[in-house]
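Input (structure):
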C-alpha cells in the first residue's frame, strides 16, 4: 500500500514528459542535424559550380587556341612582282623548304622552268596548290610560256638540257670562267622575269664553292654587292670590253686590283635573285647593266670554245 497522502505519478505522465523532453532535446538536436543536412546538400552545388568553371576555362582555351591553329594552317596567295624570283619570294615569305618547296607547291602554275615566272602570276604559299593549278593568271602563264618556247627552242635552258663547256684556255690569253661547267640558261633567252625582257648573260651551272676565274688579264672596276646580281665582280680587259661574274658566294679581289688570265676572283654561289647556285656571266661594252653582248660569241672570238 502506498503511503497515505502521497500519490504515485502515473507512468503515462512521466512518459509524456520524457517525450516532451526528448522532443525538446530532439528539437535542439535537430538544429545541428539540419545544419549537417544543409552542408551535405551544398556539396553537389559546389561540385556543379566547379564543373562549370572547368568547362568555361576549357571553352576559353579552345577559343584562344582556335585562331592560332587557324593561323598555323592558313594559306595565302602572293602575286609575283617585277624583279621577283622564287628564291627571293621564298626568303621574303619565310617559306619552309625554300624556293624548291615553293616551286613544288606551284609547279602547275609556274611551268617546267622555275626561272620563267612573270609579274602577276599568283603563287600559293603555305599549302600545296590545287592539282589543276588554277590561278587568276594561269592562262597568262601558259600563254607566256608558249610564246617563249619558240625563242628558247634553239637555246634549251638548264631545266631541259645542258651543254658541256669543252675548253678551258687558248693561246690568245683567254679562258673559261669555270672549269668543267655546263651551260644552263643561254644568252637572250626571253622571259618576263628579267627587267630587260631577256637573259643578259649566260649561266654556267656549278655548285656553290666552285672556283671562278678571270677570263683574261685586266683590272677589277667593281667588286661587291650588285643587288639582284648578288655578290659580283666586273673586270675591264685590255680590248676595252668588260666581263661580269654574278651570284658569287665570296669574293677574293677588290676594286682597282689587276688580275691575270685564269686568276681566281671568288667562289660561285646563289646570292641575289636566283633559283639555285650558278655563275651568271656577261660581256659588256661598258661596266654597267644594259650594255651586254653575246658572251659565248665573245669567248669563241678569242679562241675559247663553249659547247
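Output (sequence):
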Amino acid at each position: 500500500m502506498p503511503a497515505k497522502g502521497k500519490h504515485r505519478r502515473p507512468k503515462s505522465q512521466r512518459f509524456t514528459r520524457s517525450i516532451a523532453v526528448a522532443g525538446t532535446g530532439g528539437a535542439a538536436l535537430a538544429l545541428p542535424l539540419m545544419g549537417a543536412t544543409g552542408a551535405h546538400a551544398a556539396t553537389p552545388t559546389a561540385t556543379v559550380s566547379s564543373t562549370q568553371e572547368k568547362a568555361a576555362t576549357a571553352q576559353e582555351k579552345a577559343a584562344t587556341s582556335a585562331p592560332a591553329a587557324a593561323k598555323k594552317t592558313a594559306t595565302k596567295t602572293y602575286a609575283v612582282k617585277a624583279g621577283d624570283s622564287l628564291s627571293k619570294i621564298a626568303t621574303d615569305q619565310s617559306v619552309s623548304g625554300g624556293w624548291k618547296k615553293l616551286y613544288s607547291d606551284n609547279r602547275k602554275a609556274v611551268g617546267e622552268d622555275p626561272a620563267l615566272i612573270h609579274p602577276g602570276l599568283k603563287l600559293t604559299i603555305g599549302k600545296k596548290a590545287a592539282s589543276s593549278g588554277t590561278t587568276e593568271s594561269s592562262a597568262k602563264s601558259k600563254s607566256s610560256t608558249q610564246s617563249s618556247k619558240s625563242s628558247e627552242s634553239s637555246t634549251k635552258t638548264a631545266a631541259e638540257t645542258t651543254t658541256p663547256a669543252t675548253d678551258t684556255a687558248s693561246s690568245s690569253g683567254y679562258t673559261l670562267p669555270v672549269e668543267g661547267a655546263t651551260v644552263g640558261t643561254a644568252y637572250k633567252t626571253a622571259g618576263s622575269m628579267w627587267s630587260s625582257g631577256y637573259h643578259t648573260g649566260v649561266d654556267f651551272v656549278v655548285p656553290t664553292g666552285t672556283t671562278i676565274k678571270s677570263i683574261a688579264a685586266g683590272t677589277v672596276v667593281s667588286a661587291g654587292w650588285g643587288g639582284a646580281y648578288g655578290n659580283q665582280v666586273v673586270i675591264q680587259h685590255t680590248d676595252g670590253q668588260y666581263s661580269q661574274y654574278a651570284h658569287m658566294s665570296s669574293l677574293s679581289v677588290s676594286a682597282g686590283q689587276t688580275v691575270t688570265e685564269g686568276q681566281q676572283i671568288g667562289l660561285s654561289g646563289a646570292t641575289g635573285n636566283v633559283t639555285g647556285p650558278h655563275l651568271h656571266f656577261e660581256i659588256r661594252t661598258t661596266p654597267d647593266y644594259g650594255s651586254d653582248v653575246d658572251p659565248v660569241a665573245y669567248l669563241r672570238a678569242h679562241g675559247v670554245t663553249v659547247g
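Notes: The chain has six helices and 14 strands. Residues 104 and 128 are 8 Å apart (CA to CA).
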